[in-house]
Here is the input.
Amino acid sequence: MLYRECGNFKDNYAKDMAIFPIPLDRWGLGIMLVFAFLVIPFTASDYWLSSIMIPFYCFSLAALGLNFLTGYAGQVSLGHAAFMAVGAYSSLILYGRYGIPLVPSILGGGIVSAIVGSIFGIPSLRIKGFYLAVSTLAAQFIIEWVLTHWKWVSGGVFGTIDVPNLYIFGALLDTPLKKYYLVLCIVALMITFGKNLVRGQLGRNWMAIRDMDVAAEIIGVSLFRYKLIAFAVSSFYAGVAGALITITYYGAANIEEFNLFLSFHLLGMIIIGGMGTILGSFLGAGFMVLLPIFINQSMLTFMERVPSNLRANSEAIVFGGLIVFFLIVEPYGMARLWHTIKEKMRLWPFPY
Amino acid sequence: MSQKTEPILQMEAIEISFGGLKALDKVSLQVYPGEIMAIIGPNGAGKTTLLNVINGVYTPDNGRIFFDGKERPLKIKPHHVAAMGISRTFQNLALFKGMDTWSNIMVGRTKKMHAGFFSQGIYWGMSQKEEIEHREAVEGIIDFLEIENIRKQPAGMLPYGLQKRVELGRALASEPKLLLLDEPMAGMNLEEKEDIARFILDANEEIGYTIALIEHDMGVVMDICDRIVVLDFGNKIAEGTPDEIKSNPKVIKAYLGEAEGGGE
Amino acid sequence: MNFFFEVLITGLLVGIMYSLVALGFALIYKASDVFNFAQGDMSLLAGLALVGFLTIMPLWLALVCTIAVMTLLAYATVFIIFRPLVARPPLILFMAAIGLAFLVQGIGQSIWGTDAKGLNIGIPDNPIILGELFLSSFDLIFGVVAAALVGGLVLFFQKTRTGRALRAVADDHEAALSVGIPLLNAWAVTWVIAGIVATVAGIAWGSRLGVQFSLSLIALKALPVLILGGIDSIPGAILAGLVVGAGENLAEVFIGPYVGGGIQTFFPYLMALLFLWFRPYGMFGKEIIDRV
Here is the structure.
């Protein structure tokens, strides 16, 4: 009985509808936040901060964006990497070319991405399933083409914009630690905002569309409105994630970083992490960031015995295998495994 | 029921065909405020099609529809129909399976909730007030339908009979001017049917809802309905009180005779 | 004008290849409701296997062994991946196919290597002069092979007992089961056929561009074809392949220079998107009516 739902009685609906109604969940989240804000920054090395934690947060944000669309609203997108790219390029254009302050530039990148995402979301009003998947794939190709061929957008050569020196409130943003805090603050706020959205009326309407769209519309959910909002919110999150990872990690906006495979990887993240859960976006992103490192480490250990071809392709095999595995065995992903552990802890030490 | 009052819903000469097949042929009917009206007929008579026309899922080829005193365009988005005050349950289970019971019912109130996007995102001010207010209303429906113990269970995991009941709750949640029930008791045992019949009667008598329902169980229809419309192959063949319908030779020929023969 | 026809015919010949890949998609989709994202990776696998076998055996034996690999893949896919997923939502099946794509590509490249390989099975590639048009003999030969394969498949599905059984499965899973057609075996046979189609496409593209990772991307070329043709329509896939092949080539040559070139990558998608707006289920696709 480590994890207790019972014994905490609520005397009004406000408490029952609080963001984390169960005290232990609140404690858990508190500990996580202390860890993220106070422990990690002062214990982790610069390498961990800038090459693991920052990409982890950014991909979590992007995965959460895709999760809104796919896990909550039931609309598939294979163009999310391109929406990240839109955010990256437009925030750099806003910051570097027009001198708009950093944080508004990042959010502005998200807004541009949201607009572009909504435009490509319009077909979702008429088409579903694979047809929609392919039309979002069109977004990926068209955006890639525009970013590499329109000089006004890409500016320099090979469709690349370098990140200039970053100033926030007049202070130079140079060390990994400062960048870490910038990313963490924005991500934490956007996760909270997102959690509120999905547990409110908007999230319920999204899930209604996902579970039974015709019935949802007859009950009063405007498919047009809520699908478009899903595309907009989803690509806003992707756009901000793209902007953040570009300015704090990649160092230059480059379309190569946001290719079709990132779109697939984002989809893989939410499948492995858990569709339709906030936690799943984090678990999936963490998993995908750590997987190559883990594979490299274990391959180093067995260097002599593993053929080089297998070494080069093991990531694809593990990734593909896990997508299939989770779809077959645990369609709700790692987040559900966590749920199962909570169930066990609720009963512990009495198995029945 | 007094037939003198203005009908809440009036359909005139509705025609619709699918690939050359006439699903509804010049069907006219009225639903009066405060009554329970039944639409009956053999399978394939066009009953569900009729509800889909009312909801705006199908656009009829011809005819006119008046609701609440105003003419409604034939082609209309279903959610606009919901906003006018028409709510609906479905023949096959159509709950949102991944959501828990109270959330399902809460979706029914979507047209009554107006908190903006940012208010919802920060869950403060209007959004919070609204969520709590509507949660109270939903709890009222949960009490009414006696499903307190399953309010936080995922709807997809509930037994069939309870799912039908939650679906009724979702339809009631919008406090509709007209409630459409498509076979609310299909596939239920006697006890469950009695429960649902009681809820329908209570909703009608205590809260004053106007209800139009499709049902195959003649016993229930005769017991709880004020008026009956009979469809057969897309045509309206009779209309009247339960007693009139029982003795109508056309109906007996098309429907009741067959049903009695079939061990109804 | 001659130049126009050259561009058009080159486009049409490429279009036949698109039809071939799209056909693989349509076959599997019709039979098992799986949108097989791995179709391109299957072509890659076939190409890799063929190149690998060719180093140690004659062509005919290498072809037999390649088909054997594709058959093995088909059965493994159906019985290991899709059997547990029967009756799951299409979105899940689609995602599983994406996982399969990574698996097939990863495993194929693990066995036969990641580097680009030449593939030459002895088909001549000489310019042929037809009147005043210059065409490639290789393109023509493969155009004919592809057309023959498509024709053969149509005959197979119309005339043979197995073909009719497969069509029955495609039309109605439960009804097929009830008359005693084993569902999973039928699916596996369909996957084998799709594997053979993928092999032919793999050879055609592999001989042209070399057998390498980018071969798996031809699947992406076939997707707009499917949209135009309707995902469940075999004649649609064939016709749309030609339209897309011709359309993108014409667009690249005649519109490309004005907008900076490289529009071949997305022009088919643009065509598909515009088309979708007016016919959401493609040229020949079945319209899905939602029932409530």
About this structure: The first strand of chain A starts at residue 160 and ends at 162. Chain A has a mean pLDDT of 87. The CA atoms of residues 26 and 145 of chain A lie 46 Å apart.
